[in-house]
């Protein structure tokens, strides 16, 4: 996705190399992450794709199989990674993630604390937001889950921006070494109110906190706890409706009378009905249509933001 060199400059590697991770895109609902390995092949319903044909190509390239089928090779951006990663826990999706990054006011150079790591969906976007000189410290109480997330961060090229640790933040709080150093804190915990006092100690003056909770009862209790050290407490529910745009065929149409004579409709055929009325018949035609996706997601959770006094 991105690389950080020794001079702390951010660069985007646009050429695919052996060992890189690529997102193989067949269509918007058919994508998978593949590690490019010379000598390996990808086999799907479009045919057999040789990895060796991919090396040296730019991300975004269209590549062909032995049968003439094709897929696109895309860079593992945080947006795409969120759609293809392994779900070790319930994850945050793009609508919530973009809102969190904006409302926490995260910019390059920030230090961000996160708990818990989960599947690392949000962490990848936080890493890009703080790059190239900032850092994300993310914690999860589950050692195996934290280790899997660490492997993913290495795979997509953000390990220099993220440190994944194992810690029960609800029970122990954040490590004291971060006291007063964090610009922003994000909590995704079953009982976030237990970690809010520790988060307050970690934040710089005027730092921001966000807590994600699926239930309004969790939000209410968290807000009560925040009142001691925080101001400007606000809760949001982000709802996203996605539309699918594609070409489709409109069915043939019959209209009584002479409604299409002004030329605004395509060529037509006329016929007389048995009752003597004139019928105008228009043939089927192709057009671009937009309609809501059948898998549109509704409620995911509530985002509560607050600013340290």
UniProtKB/TrEMBL annotation:
Residues holding S-adenosyl-L-methionine: 119-122, 140, 168, 188
Name of one Pfam family that matches: GCD14
InterPro entries the record matches: SAM-dependent_MTases_sf, TRM61_C, tRNA_MeTrfase_Gcd14
Residues in tRNA (adenine(58)-N(1))-methyltransferase catalytic subunit TRM61 C-terminal domain copies: 69-307
Domain of life per record: Eukaryota
Keyword entries, A-Z: Methyltransferase, Nucleus, S-adenosyl-L-methionine, Transferase, tRNA processing
Gene3D superfamilies to which the protein is assigned, alphabetical: 3.10.330.20, Vaccinia Virus protein VP39
Catalytic activity, as annotated: adenosine(58) in tRNA + S-adenosyl-L-methionine = N(1)-methyladenosine(58) in tRNA + S-adenosyl-L-homocysteine + H(+)
Enzyme Commission designation: 2.1.1.220
Any one cellular-component term (Gene Ontology): nucleus
GO molecular function, one term: tRNA (adenine(58)-N1)-methyltransferase activity
GO BP terms in the entry: tRNA methylation
EC category: transferase
Location of this chain's protein in the cell: Nucleus
Keyword Magnesium: no
Region (Disordered): 251-283
Family: Belongs to the class I-like SAM-binding methyltransferase superfamily. TRM61 family.
Protein name as catalogued: tRNA (adenine(58)-N(1))-methyltransferase
Organism: Medicago truncatula (Barrel medic)
Lineage summary: Eukaryota, Viridiplantae, Streptophyta, Embryophyta, Tracheophyta
């Amino acid at each position: 996705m991105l690389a950080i060199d020794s001079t702390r400059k951010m660069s985007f590697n646009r050429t695919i190399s052996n060992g890189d991770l690529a997102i193989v895109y067949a269509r918007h609902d058919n994508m998978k992450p593949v590690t490019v390995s010379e000598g390996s092949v990808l086999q799907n319903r479009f045919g057999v794709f040789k990895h060796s044909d991919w090396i040296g190509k730019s991300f975004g390239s269209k590549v062909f199989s032995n049968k003439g089928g094709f897929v696109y090779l895309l860079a593992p951006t945080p947006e795409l990674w969120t759609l293809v990663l392994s779900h070790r826990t319930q994850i945050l999706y793009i609508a919530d993630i973009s809102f969190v990054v904006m409302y926490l006011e995260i910019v390059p150079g920030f230090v961000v604390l996160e708990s818990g790591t989960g599947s690392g969906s949000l962490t990848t976007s936080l890493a890009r937001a703080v790059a190239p000189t900032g850092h994300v410290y993310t914690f999860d109480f589950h050692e195996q889950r934290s280790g899997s997330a660490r492997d993913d961060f290495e795979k997509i090229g953000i390990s220099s921006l993220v440190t994944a640790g194992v810690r029960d933040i609800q029970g122990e709080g954040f490590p004291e070494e971060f006291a007063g150093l964090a610009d922003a804190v994000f909590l995704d915990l079953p009982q976030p109110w237990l970690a809010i006092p520790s988060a307050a100690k970690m934040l710089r003056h005027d730092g921001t906190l966000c807590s994600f909770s699926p239930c309004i009862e969790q939000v209410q209790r968290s807000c009560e706890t925040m009142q001691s050290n925080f101001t400007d407490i606000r809760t949001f529910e982000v709802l996203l409706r996605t539309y699918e745009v594609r070409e489709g065929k409109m069915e043939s149409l019959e209209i009584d009378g002479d409604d299409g004579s002004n030329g605004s409709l395509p060529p037509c055929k006329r016929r007389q009905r048995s009752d003597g009325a004139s019928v105008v018949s228009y043939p089927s035609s192709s057009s671009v249509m937009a309609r809501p996706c059948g898998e549109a997601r509704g409620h995911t959770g509530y985002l509560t933001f607050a600013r340290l006094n």
